[in-house]
Each structure stands twice: as C-alpha cells, then as structure tokens.
Design a protein that fits this description.
methyltransferase, single chain, alpha/beta, Cytosine-specific methyltransferase, seven-stranded mixed β-sheet, S-adenosyl-L-methionine, C5_meth_CS, C5_DNA_meth_AS, globular
Length: 419
Amino acid sequence: MAYALNFIDLFAGAGGLSEGFIRAGFTPIAHIEMNKYACDTLRSRMAYHYLIQHNRSDEYVKYLREKQEGESGEKLWLTVPKEIIDSVINKEISDKTLPEIFLKVDKLKGDKQVDLIIGGPPCQAYSLVGRARDPENMKKDPRNFLYKYYLQFLKRYEPKMFVFENVPGILSAQNGIHLENIKKGIDKAGYEIELRKLKASDYGVLQNRERVIIVGWKKDLNLKYPELKKEENPYKILPDLFSDLPERQQGEGSLTGFVQYETSATKYLEWSKIRTELDFTTQHIARPHNPVDLEIYKRAIKLWLEKRERLNYANLPAELQKHNNKQSFLNRFQVVNHDGCCHTVVAHIAMDGHYYIYPSLKQIRSITIREAARIQAFPDDYYFEGSRTAAFKQIGNAVPVVLAEKIANKIKEQFAYGL
C-alpha cells in the first residue's frame, strides 16, 4: 500500500496550488482561507475530488449543468461526507483565531502525519505596485507579518517540507529586511531553506507570471530544493488556449449554465489537462462595457495587431480620456498577446477588464472568467463560486495549476527517494 502524502494549505485562496499537489498524489488535510467565496470554491472542488475517487463523477456533472444563478454549492456539498466540506476552514488567521484553527486542524488530522505545508500569505503587502502607490501604509500593513502564523504551523505540525509562495516584491520589501526576518524565523523553527524566482512560462504556463517559491525542509532530512527544468513553450494564447471556446461579445454569457466546445481539444489543452473528459465548460461570461471603453478597446486591439504596440492612455483623444489620473498607469488598457504568452493575471482583474482585452476585433471585450482561468491553467471543470467579481478575484490571486503540479511532482520524488 502506498504511503499517503498529506498536506495543509494555508492562505489557500481558490486552490490553484492545492490542485497541483492533489494531481501529483498528495492528500489535503485542511485548507485555511479567509475569503468566503474562495472557501466555497474549495468546498466544491473537494467535493469534486471525492466524487471522482468514488466513481460518482456524474453527480458533479449534474451539479454543473443544473446550477442556478445565485445558488451556493450546498447541493453539491450535501452529496459527500461532512468531513470533506469541514476540511475547508473559513477563518482569517490571527492571534484570536489561531487556537480555534489549530483545534479544527488537529481533529481533521487525527493520527495522520503532516508531510507538507503549502501556501503563501496575501501578496498585496509585498506588491511593488502597492508600495509605489502608498509606500508608508504598505510598511505598516499587518499582512506583512502573516508569515509569523506560517511559522506557528511549522512548529506545531513539523512537516518534512514546506512551500511558501509569494510575489517577487517580497525580495525587496523594506530593503530586504523583511525577507531576512522570514529566513531567521524559519531557521529557528528547524528548517533549511532555498528560494528561486520562477517564471511560469518557462514551465508550460501561457503567462509571463513571476513568483518567488521558497522551499524549506527539516535540517535532519536528506532533502533539497525541487529544481524544475525549463521547457520550450511554443504554444500561443489564441490558437492553442482560446480557439475551442465559442465567440462572446461584451455582456454575453452566464455565471451558470454551460457551453459546448466549438472544436476538439488542442495539443496544449490536452497536455496541460485544461480540457477534461467533459464535452462542455462553464463560466464563459464576458463583462459588459460602456461605449467609451469599447472604442478604447478597439483602438488598443488594432494598434497591437497591426504594429505590436501598446496603447498609451495619454495619446487618446480628449473625449475618450475619462480618468483623472493621466500621469501614471498609462498602459492601463492592454491587449492579451495573441501569439505568445499573456502578461501576469492579477486580482485587479476583478475591478475591470481594461488590462486584459481579448485580442480580436471580432470580439471587442475583456476576457471571460473561463479564459482567465485557462491562463492560470485551471481545468475547465473547475467552478469558481460567487459572483463574477468574486470569481475573477480568486483567479487573479491563484498559483497556476501546471506550475504547482510540477513543483509537487519534484517534491514527491524526494519523498520517495530522499527520506
């Protein structure tokens, strides 16, 4: 019988990192996340995995096909054991809540060993953009110190390894002092660490997303950093990632219901496991846009397709300049690169779609929920609970699933041979 590899996911979000580890054969003991909608998404995904394991996938398919607007995932959750749903803990980690969270995790863990802890505190506190906008407040942001709770989990559950993910800004926050404090805390907890700045497009993701991945292991174990081999990435957004989805105009689509694919899966969609065994997907919904934005989108698309140039907001006619801020963020309208990799998808996509314009004059709009999810390498059967805004926020905060799976597989190799 194979030894089960168990993990806890902290600051879990919608589960992109977790999904990669589950694919690699790890088993989640608990997910801890403060956002209600992200927790609902995790509950639905944990129900999915349970149903798949018990040859009951038809019940999940039925849920996707019959889900109604505004409905929670409760109908789905009731089809699986209560402990599966309870493994998602909807709590903000703080001094006040930590004892309660520990009790819940202890109950879920039982006598199982915690082999791994994964996750990363909310990255906005380390964001270079955020620090540029409001440097003083960012210094005082309490999210800067959430890593201390991560250390508490390491001390209590003593995993063999951990994976701590964050934005590149963590390297320079407070002139590097913040990272040094994290390293000292990890050392005191009894772990060796190394870190790498990884670019998702080097590992098969169609996105130029950079993230710092810190990996630690117990000092008395024969383990090391899970080095990933860079790969050629010849695939392109429009022909390889989006081409099988039906056309959408601005405002079209629905949070619920499903859409049939227009074509068979591309080689990339099969390789990345984005296309699943289902013959449909969900949440292919496009935002509505006002006439001014649509005209700007049209200009931005033409400029990109014809000249490979980005639109500068300051160069627009005066009647199209509706923002008061004309000094910064002049690239706020950006078209997704149709014949390469997309720029980084971030949580701001929940606010508006200006930075993620679909690269075709036949569909003048920003990208849909499903298209954004695909850029983050989520499989098409992954359902994001909550409103359109909530779904976009969950996607923007996630770790690309393909990258997470590659890290997980390398760690699994070490667990098999290095202990």
